[in-house]
Amino acid sequence: MFIQRNLCPSNCVGVMLLADMYGLSSLKTTARRQVMTHFSEVRQSEGFLSLSTKQLLDLLGDKELQVASEDEIALSVMRWLDHESESRKTEVSRILPVIRLPCVRVSVLRKLESHPVIQHCAECLAKITAAKKEHLSGSPQLMADTGREEAERQPRGGLSDDLAIIVGGWKAVTQRDHNQNPPPPAPLQSIICVDPDSKQCYHVSDLPTSIYGSMGVAGAGHYLYVTGGCALSSLHPDPPGGNKPSKQTFRYDFSTDTWTRLSDMPRGRAGHQSVIVDGKLFLVGGHTEATFFNMFSMDCYDIEEGAWIKPPTVPAMNTPTNLTVIACGGKIVLIQILRKQGKLSVRSFDVNTEHWTCSYKSKYSDFQVDIRAIAVGNKVHFCTTTGKRLDFSLMVYTYDVEEETPTIKTEDRYVFKEEIDVVNGVCHYRKHNKYVNGQEGIINTISRTIYGNPGRIYVVKKQTTQMLPFALFGQSFLATKKGSVGWYCRDQLRKVEKDQQHVETYNMYYDPYYGSSDDDTY
């Protein structure tokens, strides 16, 4: 009892081993729990260095082990090897598999690669090199070619591979001058990202243009494609030149922090959505430079050819303000609510055949909602949430893009034993603590998801909310994966600190490029 009361990260390993030696199961359990929850400090203790190979493998392989990142595991293994390098160099091949190399930053992988003990193991060097090449090339297939399991590319429990990227926008300014007139909103002249693990916002890069908001953003590997947008928000007094939508197109390499200017768009566009299907970038909807409110249109950029090509023929429809666009099974799916007709509409465009299909859900009356959708396999699962809060009582809809005459099927959320997480425009079916896409045996192991809203990033896991450091509107949002975007190529990014000049007042503003705010007023 005395030892248990005095447990701390510096002695819990020694206590755990002592309790095991004398059969004190309760003390051992308590000490082990201390090791699992305070590993960041425990790995610096002398007791950690005294662990045998078997004991080290037992701890590092425990699913309850809590770390800030997989880098800690790699660094702790190198420290353990250094303690008795001669006797432990033969154990490297047994220990390396417990490190999830695809989740380790390139800078740490280079340290592993150059470690004297690891240098003696050709098999280990090959695995580390493959992980490094996977990060730098953005190709998960490299790791698959070496025979590594998919599970080794997944972060440890408590960590997430999800990443939210925010491009541009305007900060809501609340300070007023002596005439009580608020100044124009301040532009966010950069890309920031939100890491749900650290619950921090990080500065990624500065925008190479004076265009700040209502841009389209899509991701393919390490590249982000940023298109169009406008230089000023609608709140700016007397915008010069009518604030026409921009034609500019940029490609940003996340892993190397470099920008490339691509050929201009055929026409300026703002407030649109972007998706990449079959090597082509599609710009969908929004407002073009021709007129402020115009008919629905699309543009297409061939990534391999590096040129804008003839866009597909589109159905006659007004540009909807509540449109949600998602890529699924080689098709582009457009989901919208037709307010006058009282219908939920889903259109599908086959990129290869350029064929459109349309399906409706009648008697739909709840129009003050956002549509959240996710593509799993050849199906799009989506649901609706109110603008002010997540509403888990609403129905979930499923749309099969492969059916010749696809229909929208309504699923009752209460059919499932667990809850439905709604995020990033997404709903995941979760059953038996795993996410299932509705087909037996097909499991999606995403554990946490995210989506954007003006001034907020929602991280839905036990319904927690991650706030941005300032109120923001008119921004572009992309939910992506750390493993694909090049997150592990970059060392720790600079944190974005809270801006006291910009507080959470985003629902006071309306921006026609972005869409309506909560109350649809200025």
From TrEMBL:
Residues 136-157 are annotated as: Disordered. Keywords: Kelch repeat, Repeat. Residues 12-113 form the BACK domain. Residues 146-155 have a biased composition (Basic and acidic residues). SMART domains: BACK, Kelch. The keyword Repeat applies. It comes from the Eukaryota. Pfam families: BACK (PF07707), Kelch_1 (PF01344). The keyword Cell cycle does not apply. PANTHER family: KELCH PROTEIN (PTHR24412), KELCH-LIKE PROTEIN DIABLO (PTHR24412:SF272). This is KLHL24 protein. It comes from Branchiostoma lanceolatum.
